[in-house]
Amino acid sequence: MSDVPSLSSPAPRRRRAEGLRLLAGAALVFATLCALPMVAVAIAALSGGTETISHLMETVLWRYTATTLWLVVLVSAGTFALGVGAAWLVTMTRFPGVRLFEIALVLPLAFPAYVLAYAYTHVLDHPGIVQTVLRDLTGWGPRDYWFPDVRSTGGAAAMLILVLYPYVYLLARAAFLQQSATTFLAARALGASAWSAFFKISLPLARPAIAGGVLLAVMETIADFGTVAYFGVQTFATGIYTSWFSLADRAGAAQLALCLLSFALLLAFLERAQRGGAKYHDASRRQQRMEPADLQGMQAVFAAVLCGIPVLLGAVLPVVILFSMGLGSEQNLLSPRYLGFIQNSLTLASVAAVCTVGAAIVVGFFQRLSPGRLSHGAGYVARLGYAVPGGVIAVGLLVPFAAFDNALDAFMRARFDISTGLLITGSIWLLVAAYMVRFLAAALGAYEGGQALVPSNMDAAARSLGQTPTGTLRRVHLPILAPSLLTALLIVFVDVMKELPATLIMRPFNYDTLAVQAYRLASDERLEGAAVPSLVIVAIGLMPVILICRQVGRHRHR
Fold first, then answer.
1. Is the pLDDT of residue 311 over 90?
2. pTM for the predicted model, two decimal places
3. How far apart are CA 132 and CA 147, in angstroms?
């Protein structure tokens, strides 16, 4: 025992203090990087002058605001109805196929909304198969009938609802699973109908979880660029891209980005305020678990149809459409050009996933070892990136780093007659930084979920043996957290594969990804060609979704 270092000896205390300082410094660097886009956007917008914002208010600002708000309302209502309804049916009832549906309902999460937009435009637009068959059967001309326009705000909302309702479904289902049957059965015993007990008891108890899922869907909605841009719907996301590239109006793009950032942060604040100290559920073992009701006859058929429609429209039908489109295209996945797209996408996604998960480990471990205002503040700022759309992050990073590159180039020209060019702006590393800011919250969530399983006495034992914070992390935490870290890596990897606005704005010259290629082909109305990179993105996106489905199945049948 004499070889074991003592906690009271100076050397271990000094190593631990140095380790904590290093950890704190790294965590603050990552938090500062996450805060930088928001600060830069605010400064650029406020220094842009009143002429730009006045012009925006006279022309497009109110249209952007109204369209974005209407899209948020539609998606909120749609994801709430689909997610909560499906979660209640598969959790609280039994009908043929319920075990299949409880997993299949998660599958649309693997699809970017813009991929669904390409697929459904191909079949529902005027030259598509649906309207063509309708005209052939009826003999109508192009102006003899009315057909819903898929390229509209309603169409964009439908695409977003189909891919975002799983957020609400997963959180609502988790809340329903762990609710006690006591209060529900008491309401039924007092004469309340099943519907009344659901609306008055079960739904309010699950409200915090449902609100969190709807908020995630709303954040993805205001951040979406590919769907609304392809459908010609004018939102803040499309306005930022148009101002930055088409109009070369940097001040206008920054001011639009500030408006969108303010709206996103307001939504996050309102969700946190309404949740307050509410608990998601009480998982006490003393509670009685709800026994699912067996549905028979038409009730069972109705439940199966309600659960099947989102899966059919959000996953099965798009895959069939995209596959048939891809077979008729001239795109060759094995050509050097496409292999380059795939390599670029995999490189960006891999590097971003490793960097983001590494940052999540640093921030999360700092919060655990040194709880306090500094560590919790760093964690809070690091999570704000998920509330910031990709276009806002892109503008917020390009503005300061472009100014730095230009100032450095001017200095080197004046002093040494050497042009340094753009060292940071337009580089892969700045794009990776944008991904890290955007998706650090998702990685933190997965990391902290696994970290909760590590007892605090393990940290104390490691300290008593003279381990530094780095040694404790490497030898104790990381081996236990391997499954959670793998999940975090996959989530960030797939999110980066699907991300479009930041990639379009910040990618290096002639450095295209699968998402950019799909968007470019779709913008040129070459939808059959766009189906090929879209299918690859979906195939890769199924990896974390399958992991989530396995967890759902294990939780259900414990």
1. yes
2. 0.81
3. 12
